[in-house]
Design goal:
Layout: E1 16-19, H1 22-28, E2 46-50, E3 56-60, H2 61-67, H3 74-96, H4 101-105, H5 108-139, E4 144-146, E5 157-159
Antiparallel strand pairs: 1-2, 2-3, 4-5
Helix pairs in contact: 3-5
């Protein structure tokens, strides 16, 4: 079976990872010597990747960063959700801008469904953005002090 006729799959999994060069990975994880690694790749930046079942591998930095996003905090996860939804929203918006869209999906009534879906997606994006901004503000340490002219300002406080 040729690669061009193979079905396309999309996956999503959570992994633990730690920045590590290919050389470090080879020495620490696989107990390889430097002569067993291609000299051009020895200092290549990347990540030690540990899967849920304990399997360990090494991934070059660029493919790793394209496939994985940090998801340790609720804020991280909301940012991922926003990015993924925004990408779908933009694709739907681009499709709805096409002249022949009704013929592609099989009728104008289906376009109406898609336009309604787009409106809900937009509202969802707006709420996610509010929540993300709120959490950013909440997680930002703020140092307050009483202003020098607090008597005339009735005790207003200034952020430093």
């Amino acid at each position: 079976m040729g690669e061009t006729s193979m079905p396309l799959y999309e996956g999503k999994k959570k992994v633990s990872a730690y920045p590590m060069s290919k050389h470090e990975f080879a020495q620490q994880v696989n107990n390889l010597t430097i002569d067993q690694i291609d000299k051009d790749e020895e200092d290549q930046p990347g990540y030690l990747v540990v899967y849920a079942d304990g399997y360990r591998s090494w991934s070059p930095e660029k493919p790793f960063n394209e496939a994985y996003k940090l998801c340790e905090s609720p804020l991280d996860r909301m940012k991922i959700e926003y990015e993924e939804l925004n990408e779908k929203f933009l694709k739907l918006t681009a499709f709805l801008a096409k002249e022949n869209k009704a013929s592609i999906v099989g009728g104008e009534y289906r376009i109406n469904y898609m336009e309604e879906q787009r409106e809900h997606m937009k509202k969802y994006l707006d709420v996610l953005k509010l929540r993300i901004n709120d959490m950013k503000i909440e997680s930002t340490p703020m140092n307050f002090r009483i202003s020098d002219d607090s008597i005339s300002l009735r005790g207003c406080i200034k952020s430093e």
